Structure formats: structure tokens, C-alpha cells
Amino acid sequence: MRVDRFLSNLPRFNRQQVRLLLVERRVTVDGVAVSDPHHEVREFSCVCVDDEVLQVGKPARYFMLHKPQGCVSATADPVHPTVLDLLDEPDPSELHIAGRLDFNTTGLMLITNDGQWSRRLTQPQTKLPKVYLVQTEQDITPEYAVTFAAGLYFAFEDLTTQPAELELLGPRTARLSIIEGRYHQVKRMFGHFDNKVIGLHRERMGPLVLDDALAPGEYRALTDNEIRRV
Ligand code: URA
Fold first, then answer.
1. CATH code, domain carrying 39
2. Is 91 a catalytic residue?
3. Which keywords annotate this record (predicted)?
4. pTM
5. Are residues 118 and 184 in the same domain?
6. Of 88, 102, 194, 224, which one is the catalytic site residue?
């Protein structure tokens, strides 16, 4: 929310007072004096007037998990373990998953409490590639790469997928890079050729690569540098 709105929502300041506070540069957000009324205040921002803290700002949290097979990409499930069960962190209900994976898909999963950050990673408009290693039941022919690059029509959503890149690594193994995350997208793309995906592993989301020091089920906090790169 805009800083002027944040301040005038407090019972102690009216709009005129807020304008003055800003003009007099008495407001700081994360330690920096702010005079622009449009300056954004988030739940993570520390907001002060003079030396008084009006909002402490809660910590933004970012984790990279190596998702194992057999767990659900959801915050709760009545039957199966969820990826959040693998995290030993306070207030797990405040966390969400940036880009779900199917029950048996393995690999990079990003978990955070920062909705803006996760949207940047997952929205097709930002065009960040999601890279998967794919193993199939049948051979992958050269035709696949051409079809995936042109886009595939998904009748259910009534859309054509964005161009995707396929690199053949073996007769039944490939690396696929897509910029969307439609429901079961990779399986449906190979399903177009009646070729079943029998192994799926996410290696990368945008600039973030799964850390090979993480065994399936393990996780770590992202570094400041990794967080900033998204
Ligand atoms: N596409 C799929 O079909 N499944 C996944 O888990 C991820 C992408």
C-alpha cells in the first residue's frame, strides 16, 4: 500500500498531517527517508515517524527445497505428506509455494511468504524459464521440438502454450524449458504425442538452480543474492 494511505489509516494522523510528515521528511521506510506519497509500504517494511516505529515489518522468508517423490505441493492434505511438512520453520501456514509440482515430480521448489516475489517467478508475463528433465515411455522424435516451439493448443483453457525449448539428451530423455506453469503442462505436452512422462524433475526456475548439495527432502534458505535475482 502507498505510504500516505498507510499513515492516514492510523487513527493518529489525518491526511493533512500525513502530507506534512512526508514533506518534512520525517517518515522512513526501511531506514530511508521518504517524501513520495506513492512509496510502497509492505508487510515486510519497517516504518518510522521521527524515531518512533509504527510498523516493525515481519521478516520475508525464502526457501529452496528439493521436492522428493510422494509428497503433495499443497499447504495441507488429509492423506499424504505435504512439502510444508518437510520444513522445520515457525508459522508454516504463512508460507506458500511458488509453482507447484505433481505428486511424483521431483526437484526445485521455492517456498516463501512474499507474494510479489513468487508472482514474479511464476507469471508467464515475466517469461522466466522453468526447466525440467523429462523421461518418457516412448522415443522422442525431432517433431516434438518443432511442435513445442510453435506452441500447443490446450482446449480446456482455450489457449496456445508459449514457445518452449526442447533439447534431446537421449532417445527418451530431454530437457524442456517452458515459461508458463499450466496444470500438468509438461505431461500434457508429451501427451499430445501419446508419450507418457515417466520421470519429471525441475532443475531451475528463472535464475534459481536446484542446489545439488540438497538431497531429496532437504531445504535451505535462499541467499540475499538469490532473492534479489528474481
Ligand atoms: N508439468 C507437469 O506435468 N507436472 C509437473 O509437476 C510440473 C510441470
1. 3.10.290.10
2. no
3. Isomerase, RNA-binding
4. 0.90
5. yes
6. 102
